[in-house]
Amino acid sequence: MVGSVPWDVNYLAMLAATVVGMIIGAIYYHPAVVGKTWMASTGRTEEQLNANVGVMLWVVTIIVTLLLASLLGAAISWAGQTTLVGGATVGFLLWLGVTLPVVTMTFLFEGRGYNAIAITLGHQLLVMVVMGAVLGWFPWGGM
């Protein structure tokens, strides 16, 4: 419980969803999938991107993915969804109502191209829906 808001957390589900989210990102942004197109949309080379990869990047990525899993899990719990499809639906709805507008507005005002918007939104859609499915599949209630 956070204040008067119920916060049933299944830590195993959060961990599983976080790992799944990280795996999706690794596959999605692989050069054989959309990595080359994404790099072109950012105007940076693989060498430039690799120069920014360090321990802190991965620590922050893991923390924010855990945060996403926690909040998505709470939303699934609040919605009373206890199935794989129910969790995926909540993930989709949150992507549609939060991620899509925020990413689109931000990228448009930053002058990023439509490829960058589409690639980022595609990744976030996969992450939100699949993580939602994982979280909906796991039993909730203070594990």
Oligomer category: single chain
Please provide the count of β strands.
0
Order of helices and strands: HHHHHH
Please state the structural category.
mainly alpha
Describe the overall structure:
With 143 residues, the chain is mainly alpha-helical. It has one domain (11-39, 58-137). It has 6 helices and no strands. It has helices at residues 11-28, 31-42, 46-51, 55-78, 84-110, 114-137. The model has no long low-confidence stretch (mean pLDDT 90).
Q: What are the defining features of this structure?
A:
mainly alpha; 0% strand; globular
Question: What is the compact description of this entry?
Answer:
The chain has 143 residues and is an all-alpha fold.
Topology, pairings included?
Elements: H1 11-28, H2 31-42, H3 46-51, H4 55-78, H5 84-110, H6 114-137
Helix pairs in contact: 1-4, 1-6, 2-6, 4-5, 4-6, 5-6
